[in-house]
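> example.struct
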């Protein structure tokens, strides 16, 4: 069992058992490791002493025994066994070695070597009538084709395997073939077909002794339900699979269920439960000595840690997985491990180490021609250079990632289209063979009844023609059903853009009920103006010249609304001098684009909220500490040393405390108003009011300050000017602008407030003859990122928020505010309010 689980058990048991349990754990691990090594070493020793004929089977057993420890050693011993099997004409053993080596070389990414061995195995099986082995070779060949995305050949060899089993009554392989067919349809996202074949496989596999196929089928069905968000059905199949695995006491099967359950709970964001199942699975694979599976599990632990943003633990797990894979010789999966480690170092800010691992991972991907790993590496490299601020290199690798991503999508789409076309052609070939047979039969009949009446000959020819037409129609129907049942919208058009075929998915996407509403029309008729130009100027010319195009277009639905679609367009060459045609695969991504926009808006909103928070904390920390220190200092003097000072001192202390408290109160009031405006929590109630009354009431609140500095204020506003405003926020604006004017106007100066109607708007101007504002500081007056505070003419303190509040509150009232000023002359603030 895993050390983590062991320690948990120790904590729950008495002191007497702790040492015993800990000793037992290490003893079990040591025995498992020793027994595996002992068995392999013993067999190697025996193999050196047995006959040449027995070496072939013994070396295969050795290869299987060490396959999970080191694939290079496993390949070495299987190759030795193959050599002895060939020398002794042991055909069945030769094929078994080929099948084993195909799996080993697939893991290592040696695809050309795989194909050579598959060809040799097929030839040998067919020449020796070993139909049982031929089925297994075909299944291995199908796995290879799926791995390289050659779907048309994958399905072809699986159906060939099914034909061999049916013809030779090899029912023991039926379950495995159905399972592979189901897995194939899962790969091309034909989920309904996949579930159907998995269930057919279950019918044949539930009585198998090892139960592995049966349990794997249950897990795959559970995974498909999870993909479609049917989580109750998904967990049901997982639990049934776990029950069957435990009932069969099959640790490999239990491990597979634990691994699948971990993935399920990761998708549910239940990471603690996911860790529990991963840890349980680790215990089993360690007991079984399956290093390859252990590396997979450790990589999944790394993934969960990354979701928790614990990149130190992620890095540690990825490095451990890489170590195991390199010891194991798994070049194919060592590649993404290097890339993941590079990505971890990027997150940790260790850019040199990140670049080293990313470059090494991408190099391996290029050597084994794994484009999906190359894209993974390029994407991680983009993030690295973005974090370093090297946008030139970031753009370079972004272009590479995009180019290879498109090639993967196009390749997969081409394979899928080719799969449909091959299905059609296979059916067409069958029809031709049937036609030949009919023609031979009719020729014999024709010879026998040559003397018969001409009418009989005409009847026979009509029958032949009818049969041919019926079979051709069946071929078309089969191809149509394949396209009809796909989830993607499919449109086929001629090279001019005229629509000749659509499937049901497109009708559903566009909200159309009748094909005649679309057929015969041009593609660009269902696009907005921008997309029409795109069809004319880019899509059609590009597809004609390169054979493919992919991008986003806007498509008009029947109700007149538009959706955004991810469109892949391919040019299909019909051959035989026939006209080519366009095939368009469309996916509605409107919801996804809306989600992306929402995410962007949420991100911007969060960014603003964080800036507001930081700004508030900065103001509180900077501007509140001074006044409070002053208040605390002077109040302490008055409280503890009252009798040591004269009455004049007490009055001066009280005035200073009052001014500090007033400044602090003004700051808190403005801070409260500003934070509410930033967070969108201010309610605006627009109403028609007399402008003079609002200005006069708020100026009266500042009358004491005006009298103290002996300032004259003039309000020149007609009492018939009506404005549509929120009185609370505009009151704050008036008070802050006038307070600002009082602060920066010399004793005995003048402040004027003038309002006029200007067209459909109202202009309000606040003018003072104070000290003015320097030209370089004018742009900072309304800047939320700068806390510009300046002492007044008599050292009055400000909040640094007043004018910023004015701008935001004026805008909330649908108005604008501007400032003009000149040093030594004064300032003028102008507000324009709409009717």
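> example.seq
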């Amino acid at each position: 069992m895993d050390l983590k689980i062991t320690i948990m058990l120790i904590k729950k048991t008495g002191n007497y058992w702790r040492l015993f349990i800990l000793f037992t754990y290490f003893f079990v691990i040591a025995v498992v490791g020793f027994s595996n090594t002992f068995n392999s070493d013993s067999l190697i020793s025996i193999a050196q002493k047995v006959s040449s004929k027995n070496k072939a089977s013994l070396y295969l057993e050795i290869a299987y025994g060490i396959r999970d420890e080191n694939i290079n050693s496993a390949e070495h011993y299987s190759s030795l066994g193959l050599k002895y099997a060939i020398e002794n004409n042991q055909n069945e053993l030769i094929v078994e070695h080929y099948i084993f080596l195909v799996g080993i070389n697939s893991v290592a990414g040696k695809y050309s070597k795989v194909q050579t061995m598959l060809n040799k195995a097929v030839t040998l099986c067919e020449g020796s009538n070993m139909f049982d082995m031929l089925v297994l070779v075909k299944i291995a060949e199908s796995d290879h084709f799926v791995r390289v995305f050659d779907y048309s050949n994958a399905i072809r060899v699986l159906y060939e395997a099914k034909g061999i089993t049916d013809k030779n009554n090899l029912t023991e392989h039926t379950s495995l073939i159905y399972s592979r067919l189901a897995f194939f349809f899962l790969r091309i996202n034909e989920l309904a077909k996949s579930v159907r074949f998995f269930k057919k496989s279950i019918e044949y596999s539930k009585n198998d002794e090892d139960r592995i196929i049966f349990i794997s089928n249950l897990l795959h069905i559970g995974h498909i339900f999870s993909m479609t968000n049917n989580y109750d059905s998904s967990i049901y199949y997982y639990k049934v699979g776990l029950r069957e695995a435990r009932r069969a006491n099959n640790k490999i099967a239990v491990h597979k269920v634990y691994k699948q359950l971990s993935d399920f709970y990761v998708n549910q964001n239940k990471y603690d439960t996911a860790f529990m199942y991963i840890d349980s699975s680790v215990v089993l694979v360690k007991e079984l000595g399956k290093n390859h599976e252990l590396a997979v599990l450790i990589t999944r632990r790394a993934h969960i840690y990354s979701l928790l943003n614990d990149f130190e633990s992620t890095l540690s797990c990825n490095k451990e997985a890489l170590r195991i894979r390199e010891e194991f010789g798994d070049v194919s999966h060592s590649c993404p491990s290097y890339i993941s480690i590079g990505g971890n170092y990027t997150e940790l800010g260790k850019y040199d180490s990140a670049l080293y691992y990313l470059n090494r991972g991408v190099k391996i991907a290029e050597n084994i021609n794994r484009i999906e790993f190359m894209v993974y590496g390029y994407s991680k490299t983009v993030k690295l250079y973005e974090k370093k601020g090297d946008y030139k290199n970031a753009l370079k690798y972004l272009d590479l990632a995009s180019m290879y991503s498109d090639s993967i999508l196009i390749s997969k789409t081409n394979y899928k289209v080719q799969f449909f076309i091959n299905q059609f052609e296979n059916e067409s070939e069958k029809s031709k063979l049937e036609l030949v047979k009919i023609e031979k039969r009719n020729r014999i009949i024709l010879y026998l009844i040559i003397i018969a009446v001409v009418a009989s000959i005409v009847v026979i020819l009509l029958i032949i023609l009818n049969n041919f037409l019926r079979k051709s129609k069946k071929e078309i129907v089969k191809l149509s059903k394949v396209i009809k049942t796909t989830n993607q919208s499919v449109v086929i058009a001629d090279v001019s853009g005229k629509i000749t075929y659509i499937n049901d998915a497109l009708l559903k996407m566009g909200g159309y009920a009748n094909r005649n509403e679309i057929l015969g029309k041009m593609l660009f008729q269902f696009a907005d103006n921008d997309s029409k130009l795109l069809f004319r100027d880019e899509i059609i010319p590009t597809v004609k010249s390169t054979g493919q195009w992919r991008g986003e277009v806007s498509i008009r639905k029947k109700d007149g609304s538009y959706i955004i679609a991810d469109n892949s367009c391919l040019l299909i060459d019909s051959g035989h001098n026939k006209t080519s045609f366009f095939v368009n695969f469309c996916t509605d991504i409107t919801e996804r684009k809306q989600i992306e926009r929402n995410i962007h808006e949420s991100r911007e909103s969060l960014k603003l909220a964080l800036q507001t928070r930081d700004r508030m904390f900065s103001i509180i920390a900077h501007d509140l500490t001074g006044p409070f220190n002053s208040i605390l200092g002077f109040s302490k003097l008055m409280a503890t040393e009252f009798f040591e000072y004269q009455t004049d001192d007490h009055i001066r202390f009280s005035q200073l405390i009052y001014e500090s408290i007033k400044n602090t109160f003004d700051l808190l009031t403005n801070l409260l108003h500003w934070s509410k405006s930033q967070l969108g929590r201010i309610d605006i109630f627009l109403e028609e009011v007399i402008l003079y009354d609002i200005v006069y009431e708020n100026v009266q609140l500042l009358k004491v300050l005006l009298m103290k500095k002996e300032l004259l204020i003039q309000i020149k506003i007609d009492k018939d000017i009506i404005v549509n405003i929120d009185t609370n926020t505009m009151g704050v604006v008036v008070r802050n602008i006038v307070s600002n004017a009082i602060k920066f106007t010399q004793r005995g100066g003048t402040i004027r407030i003038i309002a006029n109607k200007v067209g459909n708007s109202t202009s309000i101007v606040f003018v003072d003859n104070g000290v003015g504002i320097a030209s370089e500081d004018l742009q900072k007056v309304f800047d939320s990122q700068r806390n510009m505070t300046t002492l007044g003419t008599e050292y009055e303190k400000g909040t640094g928020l007043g004018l910023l509040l004015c701008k935001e509150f004026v805008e909330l009232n649908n108005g604008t505010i501007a400032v003009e000023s000149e040093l030594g002359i004064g300032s003028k603030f102008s507000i324009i309010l709409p009717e």
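> remarks
The radius of gyration is 40 Å.
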